[in-house]
Amino acid sequence: MRADRPTAAHAPTPHRGHPAVHRKASASAGEKDCVEVAELPHGARAVRDSKNPEREPLRFTASEWAAFRGA
To answer: Which listed residue, 24, 39, 53, 56, has the most CB atoms within 10 A of its CB?
Structure first.
């Protein structure tokens, strides 16, 4: 899953509350409802549903993200 298009909304990161820029996952194709991914410090990622950007994103450590991507 590659994230390549930034969205306007931001979500707080778990590291000092800095905003994260979420990008639409390339696997979402041209659909409206998609998964968005933000890069966080230390290789972590935040994942959210584009239909509910105001909700708290799911956060993954770098090792959790690598395991997910390798599945």
So the answer is: 24
Backbone angles phi, psi at 65, to 5 degrees: -65, -40
Single-letter amino acid code for the residue at 20: A
pLDDT digits (tens, 9 = 90+) for 41-70: 999 999 988 888 888 899 999 999 999 888
With 0-12 / 13-18 / 19 or more C-beta atoms within 10 angstroms meaning exposed / middle / buried, residue 61 is middle
Which residue carries 């409802």 as its tokens? 33
pTM: 0.64
Q: Which amino acid is at 26?
A: S
What is each CA distance from 68 to 57, 64, 71, in whole angstroms? 16, 6, 5
